[in-house]
From TrEMBL:
Keyword entries, A-Z: Aminoacyl-tRNA synthetase, ATP-binding, Cytoplasm, Ligase, Nucleotide-binding, Protein biosynthesis
Gene name in the database record: glyQS
SUPFAM superfamilies, A to Z: Class II aaRS ABD-related, Class II aaRS and biotin synthetases
Sequence similarity: Belongs to the class-II aminoacyl-tRNA synthetase family.
Reactions mediated catalytically: tRNA(Gly) + glycine + ATP = glycyl-tRNA(Gly) + AMP + diphosphate
Naturally occurring in which organism (per UniProt): Lutibacter aestuarii
Function per UniProt: Catalyzes the attachment of glycine to tRNA(Gly).
Protein name: Glycine--tRNA ligase
Residues annotated for ATP binding in this entry: 250-252, 260-265, 332-333, 376-379
EC annotation from Swiss-Prot or TrEMBL: 6.1.1.14
Localization per Swiss-Prot or TrEMBL: Cytoplasm
Mitochondrion listed as a keyword: no
Alphabetized InterPro entries for the sequence: aa-tRNA-synt_IIb (IPR002314), aa-tRNA-synth_II (IPR006195), aa-tRNA-synth_II/BPL/LPL (IPR045864), Anticodon-bd (IPR004154), Anticodon-bd_dom_sf (IPR036621), Gly-tRNA_synthase/POLG2 (IPR027031), Gly_tRNA_ligase_bac (IPR022961), GlyRS-like_core (IPR033731)
Length: 513
């Protein structure tokens, strides 16, 4: 755990030091679980959003975009179930006076069992060397199977208790597992209570006539209430999807782990409307399609896994998470849910308006079923950033800190460096910047020795450094250095655009899907 904690602290401090993420209102001592994306962070975030949008909307003829308002009519949240059922189970420790989510305490306990399994694997790897078969070991080792069974049994019991709203059993489970307060080590717990996560606000000028509103806790409802508008104006035929990215707000009591769980965050969601009875096939299809999108970024298949839900939301007939191995263990990155016709039927009921589709193929009118894919943009940012941050030992005995961001997502694609600040080299470097900036985000850097500039760009995640030297004056060629391998090549200035394009082009990355 300590090692994980150290790695995570490095991620947080690196994000600040290199202009990716700042604490919100830091000069006023900040606001808990609210963050600002800095000059590099805003570019990385935009690139992740674009990468998702291109794969989801541009590459699918039958998926279109939407940008719904954050404020919605309050009945929306009654219809969606958020007013009655959008709660977290909370528990207080009487000694430390700290409040926790009961389900997160239990999940963290199971996470420790996963860490024990990892330890067993590492020990066995050392013992057996090349002959080690990880799959077989995980499937047959009695200790590993014991940890696995225990973890599954705990999560199953918790899922059932939460579904039955048996909060007394959730508390009993915490006591049986002897879970202690992470802060004080105390086992002195209160009962578990439900807490609604929506932020309330008011619409209107005077206190007497103001309408009670909520900041949206998810973006999906904006899609559902616009289903018919989009279908008719876009002449969409089922199956079709509506995609949206945007802010959502949750009054998280236990917001923590940096940008993993925030009070103001951004979602990238797509609701796919299908004929009733076909939802299971589409659900499986979208599970695979979404996993392929993640894998196209080359962050290691071993860092992803599916987690099928024991506890299904009241509206779902199937649900799975794509989990990613964050520095603090495997956690949810994206959800794929088969939501049946709950949403549209519920909005039909509360609004009194028909939200149906006439299907000419089967000559029938019906309320479509929905398969949802929903990913947190901030979580995706954290997954990419934490996975890319590496310390490397070099042959000369030194180390370097390098941010190996997938080149397609990197905020700055190339830095242009004149070897010295004289002899006309800065002028040529500036010309190269002026030419390349039409196609890419590029940086000009002339301060310090060239080796230090390389290190700085490595740590900021820039895939290419282009060095202009005295030979450039004679032969119009420059040295291009690759961040990941540190390999250097001599190339013509005229070839730079094509070399960079090949490495950062969205098409070349998405074609891997």
């Amino acid at each position: 755990m300590a090692n994980q904690d150290d790695q995570f602290k490095k991620v947080v401090s690196h994000a600040k030091e290199y202009g990716y993420v700042f604490q919100s209102s830091e000069i006023y001592d900040g606001l808990s679980a609210v963050y600002d994306y800095a000059q590099n962070g805003v570019e990385l975030k935009k690139n992740i959003r674009d990468y998702w949008w291109k794969a989801m909307v541009q590459m699918h003829e039958n998926i279109v975009g939407l940008d719904a308002a954050i404020f919605m009519h309050p009945t929306t949240w009654k219809a969606s179930g958020h007013i009655d059922a959008f709660n977290d189970p909370l528990i207080d420790n009487k000694d430390s006076k700290k409040r926790y989510r009961a389900d997160v305490l239990i999940e963290d306990y199971v996470g420790k069992l996963d860490a024990k399994i990892e330890k067993e694997v590492t020990k066995a790897q050392k013992r057996f060397g090349d002959a080690f078969d990880k799959e077989q070991f995980l499937a047959t080792n009695p200790r590993v199977l014991g940890y696995k069974e225990k973890g599954e049994a705990i999560l199953k019991r918790m899922g059932q208790s939460l579904e039955n709203e048996d909060l007394a059993d959730v508390k009993a489970l915490i006591e049986e597992l002897e879970i202690v307060c992470p802060l004080s080590g105390s086992k002195n717990w209160t009962d578990v209570k439900q807490f609604n996560l929506m932020f309330g606000t008011k619409l209107g000028a005077s206190a007497d006539t103001a309408m009670d509103l909520y900041l949206r806790p998810e973006t999906a409802q904006g899609i559902f209430v616009n289903f018919l508008n989009v279908q008719k104006t876009g002449r969409m035929k089922i199956p079709f999807g509506i995609a949206q990215t945007g802010k959502a707000f949750r009054n998280e009591i236990v917001a923590r782990q940096f940008i993993f769980r925030m009070r103001e965050f951004e979602q990238m969601e797509m609701q796919f409307f299908v004929r009733p009875g076909t939802q299971k096939e589409w659900y499986e299809e979208w599970k695979q399609t979404r996993l392929k999108w993640h894998l196209s970024l080359g962050m290691g298949a071993e860092n992803y896994r599916f987690h099928d839900h024991e506890k299904l939301a009241h509206y779902a007939d199937a649900a799975a998470d794509i989990e990613f191995k964050f520095p603090f263990g495997f956690k949810e990155l994206e959800g794929i849910h088969s939501r049946t016709d709950f949403d549209l039927s519920s909005h039909e009921k509360y609004s009194g308006k028909k939200l149906q589709y006439f299907d000419p193929e089967i000559n029938e009118r019906y309320v479509p079923y929905v398969v949802e894919t929903s990913i947190g943009l901030d979580r995706m940012f954290l997954a990419v950033f934490s996975n890319s941050l590496q310390e490397e030992a070099l042959e000369n005995g030194t180390t370097r800190t390098v941010l190996k961001l997938p080149a397609v997502l990197a905020p700055t694609k190339a830095a242009v460096l004149p070897l010295v600040k004289k002899d006309g080299l800065p002028e040529i470097a500036r010309q190269i910047v002026d030419e390349l900036k039409w196609d890419f985000n590029v940086d000009y850097d002339e301060k310090d020795a060239v080796g230090r500039r390389y290190r700085r760009q490595d740590a900021a995640g820039t895939p290419f450094c282009i060095t202009v030297d005295h030979d450039t004056l004679k032969d119009q060629s420059v040295t291009i250095r690759y961040r990941d391998t540190m390999e250097q090549q001599r190339v013509k200035i005229s070839e730079l655009k094509e070399i960079i394009k090949k490495e950062v082009d969205v098409k070349n990355w998405l074609m891997k899907m």
